[in-house]
Design brief:
With 181 residues, the protein is an all-alpha fold. The chain is built from 10 helices and no strands. The longest helix is centred in the last third of the chain and has 22 residues.
Length: 181
């Protein structure tokens, strides 16, 4: 019998795979869903977080932003906790880019800690997969890493998972000259 924890991430993995089924990474070969799957695995295996909401939200973190999925779809299938974290991870595409990034950071700062954890896993995965990014996206990685770590700074002292996550991201950054500011 499947436990509720396994059921949540298994349903989220299937939902994410269906939602992203026709999308490819920037290399035009890799199925896009590999990114949310790697982000979830980073949350679980690199950062050591076994929180079911965090893992499900990591699997779903790009569905509202990049697919026809909306908040209500996520809330109906996975509950408000997961939907709120996914919504916090969603940039408002109606805003011009400079305002969009400020709004995004403000919402992440106000969100549940799991949204900031997933943001760290997102930048970690993008840094690991930098060869697949456009030169413009690669050039933005040092700033994105710095912003994600800064947003998580207040969580580090009280949340061991966030400390592990920040340390892992900073260690990756420091090991690669192309990721340093």
């Amino acid at each position: 019998m499947t436990s509720p924890t396994h059921d949540l991430w298994q349903r989220a993995a299937a939902f994410s795979a269906r939602a992203h089924r026709h999308q490819l990474r920037k290399d035009k070969e890799t199925p896009y869903v590999s990114h949310p799957f790697r982000v979830a695995m980073t949350v679980r295996h690199v950062f050591g977080c076994d929180d079911p909401v965090a893992i499900a939200a990591a699997l779903l973190h790009d569905t509202i932003e990049d697919t026809a999925t909306d908040y209500d779809d996520i809330a109906g299938a996975f509950g408000d906790d997961v939907a709120s974290v996914v919504a916090a991870m969603t940039k408002s595409m109606i805003l011009p880019e400079p305002q969009r990034e400020v709004d995004y950071d403000r919402r992440l700062a106000a969100a549940d800690w799991r949204a900031r954890l997933i943001k760290l896993a997102d930048v970690y995965d993008n840094a690991c997969d930098a060869a697949q990014l456009t030169p413009e996206s690669r050039a933005k990685l040092p700033d994105k890493i710095a912003r994600a770590v800064a947003l998580a700074a207040r969580d580090r002292a009280t949340n061991p998972t966030m400390e592990r996550a920040c340390s892992a991201v900073l260690s990756l950054r420091d090991s690669r000259s192309d990721l340093r500011p």
